Amino acid sequence: MSKKTPILATGAVVFRGSDVLVIQRGKAPYKGHWSIPGGKVEYGEPIEEALKREVLEETGVEINILGLIDVYEALPTVHSDTHYVMADYVCEWVSGEAVPADDAEEAEFVPFSEAISRLAWDQTRKALTMAKTARARLAKED
Known about the structure:
Blueprint: E1 7-16, E2 19-25, E3 34-35, E4 38-40, H1 47-59, E5 62-74, E6 84-95, E7 104-111, H2 112-118, H3 122-141
Parallel strand pairs: 1-6
Antiparallel strand pairs: 1-2, 1-4, 2-3, 2-7, 5-6
């Protein structure tokens, strides 16, 4: 019997002006559901480099990372027997147009309220709300 271990992943709440980048997942788990871009951290890869790589691979968008939002867990469910630990970051768009690639079926910038309504997971909606607050705080500090 093999012992399962959690998988480290990272996600990006990417702002372009007041819009947020969302993707429609192209693979299980949650194929067809809307989320934020991100993915698995490879062995030996710094988390923030993994985040930049995943966003670019999934959407063609380059980002600047502003800071950590929080760390979330997705425990095994009927949809997936995998345990994910996800570090989500607030980010700003640097360049590139949102084009779906890799495991994203769709990728687009949408108004914040629309992004919140599209998201499939409550924790991701929480991350978006926290990112908006963190972004406003960081802007005041500059």
